[in-house]
Amino acid sequence: MCAKASMEEFEALLNESLEIDTPQEGSVVKGRVIAVEAGQAIIDVGYKMEGRVDLKEFADLSGAVEIAVGDEVEVYLDRVENARGEAVISRDKAKREEAWDRLEKAYANETRVDGAIFGRVKGGFTVDLGGAVAFLPGSQVDVRPVRDAGPLMGMKQPFQILKMDRRRGNIVVSRRAILEESRAEQRAEVISNLTEGQTVDGVVKNITEYGAFVDLGGVDGLLHVTDMAWRRVNHPSEILSIGETVKVQVIKINKETHRISLGMKQLQSDPWDAVEKAYPISSVHKGRVTNITDYGAFVELEAGVEGLVHVSEMSWTKKNVHPGKIVSTSQEVDVMVLEIDSAKRRVSLGLKQTMRNPWEVFAENNPVGSAIEGEVKNITEFGLFVGLENDIDGMVHLSDLSWDQRGEDAIQNYRKGDTVKAAVTEVDIDKERISLSIKALGDDTFTDAVDGVKRGSIITCNVTAIEEGGIEVDYNGMKSFIRRSDLSRDRADQRPERFQVGDKVDARVTNVDSKTRRLGLSIKAREIAEEKEAVEQFGSSDSGASLGDILGAALKGIDRN
């Protein structure tokens, strides 16, 4: 039993010794250079084993090889023995294994690693991390797009590992993360030394449509276009250029986002402080049109002070036109100050107020009753619009077109572009209305014809037409119509056919209508009136005399007279 135990112990010790003395394939071992020949270095890795490594595997980034006999190096043992009885070793693999171990620790600890960009590939660059090759995406080279990466090639610099997979041999790094971190530290330091309201010098780095970015020495601030000047600035390039040094004031600092708002106009006096004193209400000033919109035009009174001329205040006569057809950009105009709101920094201006109201001028030059001449501008269902001086219009209503014709008929005699004469009948300055009358310039035939005629008068007319419903008669050129029921007191005589054209008839005036220009006539009313008058003169119904006797006596009295 003792002999057997001793043999087992001896065998275990032998195996342990062999394991210790024989290096494991696939591991990194130390060796010593014993010779350099034929472009190779012969390395003794111990254990009575030697191997060969090409000198290029010892080259640095510049391609230089520095190795000599006696140098100790680490190599990767692929196989213990090849066909020639030599160990198969590699310096590149040893460096790669060493690098991966080191990089995995750095990745786990989120620490930076040093490397150098040595090549360009699709989508980015290759980076040597001291034995391991990593991929640097183009977007991770710098905080801003880099057009020329030449100056960065071969330069040793720090990188941040974003992703690594040892099994696949993939490593992705970022130079941008390092720059952003440094930039953030620098920004934090610069921002800590800034205070709101402080005046600093900066350099214009970039210009956009909405403002400019100014470098304050490691941190950028935004100078918005509205904070560049008190006046309107259409584009920052009007007053700034890239590379220019400017003096700005720190308006606001956001400690969380590290955003800085800057201003230039805050270093100048605010022109609005003296606006109310410089531009009293109703005063007239010269200004320059800076902007035109659908609702009006902005006029600059001085640098930093603009007012709006609303479209309703631009012209007395042009009501529905675009402001661009009245004024143009950069045009100098006279404007009147209508209202000032200093709190809202608004000035309301008027353009038309600097010119006389054309309706007032017309009223002065053309009093009611005066005759004017103008061109028919428009024809509507209710009258004519006639163009007058200073681009204003007057209206002739249908009822003011003719004495003799209905308005609907009379308006058919006019065409757009005709020149007409009319009389001024009314001027309403507040409502901007002028009323005209064409018929007022002609004779009123109706008034002349019925002059002295009133209701109850007896007039003699000429029969001009016989109709079924009555007869048409003429009195001094005025046509009237006597209805069948008014032709006689007796129903049997209410027959139009008993009259002939040319007959003269006496009729009583029952109505004088100047509006419709018609006389109301009745033969029946005349007969009743005559009967009543006869009764009053020659008897009454109580005396016992018959109506025939009374009328006979009345007729004899008329004959004697």
From TrEMBL:
GO terms for cellular component: cytosolic small ribosomal subunit. GO terms for molecular function: mRNA binding; structural constituent of ribosome. Residues 26-92, 110-176, 197-265, 282-352, 369-439, 456-524 form the S1 motif domain. Pfam families: S1 (PF00575). Transmembrane segments: none annotated. The keyword RNA-binding applies. CDD domains: S1_RPS1_repeat_ec1_hs1 (cd05687), S1_RPS1_repeat_ec2_hs2 (cd04465), S1_RPS1_repeat_ec3 (cd05688), S1_RPS1_repeat_ec6 (cd05691). NCBIfam families: PRK06299.1-2, PRK06299.1-5, rpsA. Belongs to the bacterial ribosomal protein bS1 family. This is 30S ribosomal protein S1.
